Amino acid sequence: MCNPFTLKFLALFxxxxxxxxxxxxxxxxxxxxxxxxxxxxxxxRPMAQVSWYHGxxxxxxxxxxxxxxxxxxxxxxxxxxLNGTFNFAHALANGSDLRVASSNGYTLIPFWIESWNPxxxxxxxxxxxxIPVGGTTVYIYYGNPAPTVPPATPxxxxxxxxxxKASGNPFTVAGAPNGSNYLFPxxxxxxxxxxxxxxxxRSINPNVLxxxxxxxxxxxxxxxxxxDQTVVGDPGRNFDTGxxxxxxxxxxxxxxxxxxxxxTANPVTIGIARSTTGILGSYLEIxxxxxxxxxxxxxxxVEVKGPYLIQLDNGNWILAYTGDQDGTLYRxxxxxxxxxxxxxxxxxxxxxxxxxxxAGSADGGTVADPWVFRYGSTYYIGYAASAKTSEWYQMYATxxxxxxxxxxxxxxxxxxxxxxxxxxxxxxxxxxxxGSQYILPYTGFDGGFYRFGLATQPITxxxxxxxxxxxxxxxxxxxxxxxxxxLAKWTPWIRNTGTGTRIVTGGVLQITPxxxxxxxxxxxxxxxxxxxxxxxxxxRHPDANGDSTRSAQLGLGxxxxxxxxxxxxxxxxxxRGTSVPGIPSTYSPMSRxxxxxxxxxxxxxxxxxxxxxxxxxxxxxxxxxxxxxxxALPPWLxxxxxxxxxxxxxxxxxxxxxxxSELAATTGLEQEYGPTAVVVSNFSARADANAMLPWIVLAGxxxxxxxxxxxxWHKGKQR
Length: 719
Known about the structure:
Layout (H helix, E strand, L loop, with lengths): L3 H20 L5 E3 L27 E7 L7 E10 L16 E3 L9 E7 L3 E11 L4 E7 L11 E3 L7 E2 L7 E2 L8 E8 L4 E7 L6 E7 L5 E8 L1 H4 L4 E11 L2 E10 L9 E7 L8 E8 L11 E9 L5 E9 L3 E9 L8 E2 L18 E10 L2 E9 L6 E7 L6 E8 L11 E3 L4 E3 L2 E9 L4 E9 L1 E3 L7 H4 L2 E3 L11 E6 L4 E6 L2 E6 L5 E7 L7 E8 L9 E8 L5 E6 L4 E7 L6 E8 L6 E9 L2 E6 L5 E3 L10 E7 L6 E10 L7 E3 L3 E2 L11 E3 L10 H8 L12 E2 L1
Parallel strand pairs: 10-14
Antiparallel strand pairs: 1-49, 2-7, 2-47, 2-48, 3-6, 4-7, 5-6, 8-31, 9-30, 11-12, 12-13, 13-14, 15-16, 16-17, 17-18, 19-20, 20-21, 21-22, 23-24, 24-25, 25-26, 27-29, 28-29, 29-30, 32-46, 33-36, 34-35, 35-46, 36-45, 37-42, 37-46, 38-39, 38-45, 39-40, 40-41, 42-43, 43-44, 48-50
Helix pairs in contact: 1-4
């Protein structure tokens, strides 16, 4: 409590304050603004401890983190181990009062309690926003008997998935002339009461463009052909791929069309038609060659099609389209009109702006059928992709200026499981925002029929909790809790027949392919990762016996080249392997003998473009330095029956940033929150550029103003 000496000392400072004001020395500024508290509630705190997160958390320990990498690390995962020197008695029994703050002491950062075993040990993973070369310090807070969790923050989301496929897929379209098995959705329009979808109808020869409609996104009706050979007076003309939109009170359709066999001498071109009488038409063709194909040796010498139009703020129109070279290589280009929607359009000298990816990458074989969605100042360009020239899914790229384009290497929409209508491909279509969701009509292909499907994504979500949440810490994590694998993280994937089961039980994913000839069953992640990442999985191979009739594998890849994997196959040891297209896979036995009984830690460190490191359990690293993939790959799990069953059990799977060694994290002495007196005046000190005096001057100013406030405190105590 305050003693007489303290009050005399305070009085002396009041006198000095008055003298200081007379001679004009600048003073600190009192502010009602509280210092930033991250996700904390706003409570008064003694100004001697502005770096303390919150007064309800009585204790904290500093954690010093070294950085030997030679460069600043961003959003880096660090493991902190607490042992017997940590006072577990000051925290809640389950650790639920733990919070972690950044180097400023009060901004909360993500963490996850991997294990909590009082009073002896705990393991905590922290995602540190920035670790300079000289290292940094973060703070672990505890000692709150009734901690609160900050509420989730609503956020807006761009249309990058994961998309949820409609339960009614594939849709039957009532009144379709020849059924619904050859309808290709192009894009969707909503007029406030009716959903309209432009479709290519390949059940009719020559192909036509038609409209289908629905009032509930479930029951669809064929509304008629809007463009065919009779409309343009050109017998034999095919219409395939298109985009319908409204501009200036008129309706426009851009499309690819051709007559007769397609060749460099008779290429597919992009045309445009207009209706002045409503969406159903009638439509009149303005020009068949709004955009012609390229010259004989160009990247688009056979086809330009798959058009999508969007108008920029400056009034210019951008036409994104697919170009095809020699009938096999699809890429995406753009053209610009400065004179209106009907052109003329000038092709970009940078075309193709979305080229093929590196050989074997997710889009190394196909980049086609673009759609565009503006989100803020960023344009998202979705496109059909494949590592080959078939079996398509959808990925996206971004641009802000239509000059520089950045591929995400992320999948927006993937094929469905074996037996589904889109088991082979999920492609074409375009995203439209309607109300609170994005709607993506798309074409599903099962190897026999092309049918109409829908997928949706909410336009709002919430930020993941940063409190004890592995999803907020790691770049990819699945602990396989609940009763099913996470649809927001994985998609089912098959090889050949692909039958069997994937179940989650007791916190473990169990992949069990049915015995059969080359039957593969697995999961593929919906994000991709490249160099500088460490893959870790705690897994078991129940059927591993070293023969060539079975194999369980995990790592990164697409189930076909390229792949990076740890596996059991045709050797008494575990094997490490990589593969790239066109070259036989590399397998190298590891020092660890096969183990069908125990769960073991599997580790893959993609160190650089010239080396990938592998390890089982705590064994030393074993490397591969050849046949290394060149682009990011998704997480990948697989059981392979060739023909005998080979199960894979996975307890958890995670991916995190890594520099080749763990960062040293050293815990300091416990500190205790310091105030022992009530803060009567609710203000804090804010240092201005001209405010040079110690904050204690504020006490004198308060007294002169007629109030009396006395602060008595003690610093955080070292224990």
